Amino acid sequence: MDGKSWFIFVLCLMAFNASAQVYKCADGKYQSDPCDEQSQPLDLSNVGNIVESPVKALQYNDETQSAATTKAEVTDYIRKQQIKREITTLENDRKKVFAARDDKIAQLRNRGRHANNNLAGATWQQSLAQEMTAVMQQADTDVQTIDRQIESLKSQLLQQ
């Protein structure tokens, strides 16, 4: 072996066998020599180690489970808020149905005031009364449907 090859070989051996002990002194400084008689070398065996220790893997799993739990809680909260908004929308729709019913009945009553006091007027008022009944029945049906939807959403809200 020539000198250059020998030097590279020795250099490689030194790189693989390089080890030193590190001590932490009371003042927070690190050094290669013991600070006092009670100094203990620091364990640097996993410095630069890319393999996770089992403890770190467990911590990662706990964090993952915690994140999954948090995500589930957020999803549950968002769903509850959506249900509450749907309930509010349906309650507003219910009020609109009542308002539309009341407006239609008021219009029909106003039209009935113009009826003459004869057979034709009586027949017309009877048809207006039937129309008012139909308007009220339709509004009641719409309100019952909305009420069922609201109750269904409220039960979903309680189950979550």
From TrEMBL:
<keyword id="KW-0732">Signal</keyword>
<feature type="signal peptide">
    <location>
        <begin position="1"/>
        <end position="20"/>
    </location>
</feature>
<protein>
    <recommendedName>
        <fullName>DUF4124 domain-containing protein</fullName>
    </recommendedName>
</protein>
